[in-house]
ABC transporter substrate-binding protein (Thermococcus paralvinellae), 98 residues
Amino acid sequence: SDLTGWAQVSIEQVLARNPGIIILSAHAGISPEQLCETELAKTDAVKNGRVYVISDDNIISRPGPRIVLGLEELAKFIHPEVFNYEPQPLRCSVTASG
């Protein structure tokens, strides 16, 4: 990847990459529902209902033993079939035109 560390990307950069999955923290600066009202609604992740929110920001942002819980949650979002997990992804009823 051409990005390293805690890189900030623009909506245009996200659209160009067209992610298949978007995982947000609860304090990401945009709510999952707001994705439906932006150009990001054009991404495969939003179109296919593969936008997820981490249950607790601390399990991915604070070093400690709970980081394992964060990794497990990420893995469940990415490969739910392996974990026999049925995530509750965001589903937009109406997406941005285009």
